[in-house]
Amino acid sequence: MFAIIVFLSGKISNLLSSFANLPYLEDIVLSAALFELLFLTFNILLLYIEIILDGKRLSIFKAFDLEILLTDYIIAVTLSISLCLISFSSGKLGTVLIFVILVILSYTFYLFKRLEFKNAIIKKLLIISEDLIKYGDLKTKCDYFLINLKEIIPYDIAAIYFFDYKNDDFAIPISFYLPIELPLNELDLNIKNGNTIKRILDKKIYISKNTKRDKNISIVGELQNWCESAVFVPIVVEDEVKGLIFLAGRISMSNLLLQDIEDPLNILSKQMALAISNYRYFLDIKKEAEIDPLTGLYNRKVLDKEIDNLIKQNVNFSIVIFDLDDFKKVNDTYGHLAGDQVLKEFANVIKKVIRKTDIACRFGGEEILIILKGLSKEQAYIIAERIREKFEESNIIINGNSINVTVSGGIASYPEDANNIKELLNKADAALYIEGKSKGKNKIAIC
Length: 447
Hints:
The chain is an alpha+beta fold. It folds into 3 domains: 2-122, no CATH class; 136-282, 2-Layer Sandwich (Beta-Lactamase), CATH 3.30.450; 291-446, Alpha-Beta Plaits, CATH 3.30.70. 54% of the residues lie in helices and 16% in strands. The protein contains 13 helices and 14 strands. The strands form 4 sheets. A 5-stranded antiparallel beta sheet has the order 3-1-7-6-5. Strands 9-10-8-13-14 form a 5-stranded mixed beta sheet, with helices on both faces. The longest helix is centred in the first third of the chain and has 43 residues, at 92-134. Residues 54-64 have low confidence and may be disordered.
């Protein structure tokens, strides 16, 4: 394409200058100026045609395009006069030689810019690798991962999911970057149905440069207004898809996707897979001493330690205290074994809904507390309400009878509502009983 542009620019500039009938020197200068102008014009038109064919609206060029245009233009300015001079003095052979030199130099500069771009990406990958090693908590690793990734890929929306395809129905992101006007549930990932999960389970990076026309994925709701292009990077652990890095954006990201970014994304996927493997190994070690034997959730010791660590690190988080409604009536009517079964069922619902990095603990008796790292009260409410709805829909069979049990919850956040463990628990507990239990039960209340 470069050769065609040079040929057309040269031919047209010679044709136009021939009509001017200028003296020798002025004719050379005019030919050179026309060549440069036509050369730059053809390059700009070519880039716009590429954008239109790719289904994107017209926009300003990305920095990489401008650098390539500037490089080509400098070459054209430097050599176009030489091309004209040699054409007049040496004929066609000299013209061909300069033409070949022009092509080689331009391609050399192009390769240099590509290498410069890849070198910048490698430096960012090293920073991401350092942070994955440096930070122990998986949620923190994911947060820094997305922060550093934005310097490589200028996304508008990003999310990291971990899920169990065999057991989960949907996934909520562990870490995410979302415009303030979009609610968290816009990032729900349907694990069981839809085209998107099929693409993810292929274990290959999928890049959609036009999400609205792409039939292989499904982005719905308000989210689609922010996603002109999207990248789906499966996280594969032991040959099974265990998570996803999702990136989406508008023009700035769409332009970047015109370049070769699959290799860096593959590296990032493998790094995150290693982080998950290490985290799972760490959890396996902790489980024996810290798990409540009835519910399979963490015990009170873990709860106190986790909240204390988060407060010391000044990490924003929310807690939800759940209490089963009329649980005493279940025990009195069906017996304590039936009550244990109801608790197990509720714990199973919680484990399916919460994120893999959230902490669910048996708080005492029929109370269960969840620590939702990095979520505001409004975002925590979305998850808590989903748990309440799922449990209400559960079909619990006791001695051949189907019974319906509901749950109420209270939410409080650090540091918005409290700056210590005791005060935070009291605020959530007050919301549970004053706004939840006393006002009809089967509801979630925010402090």
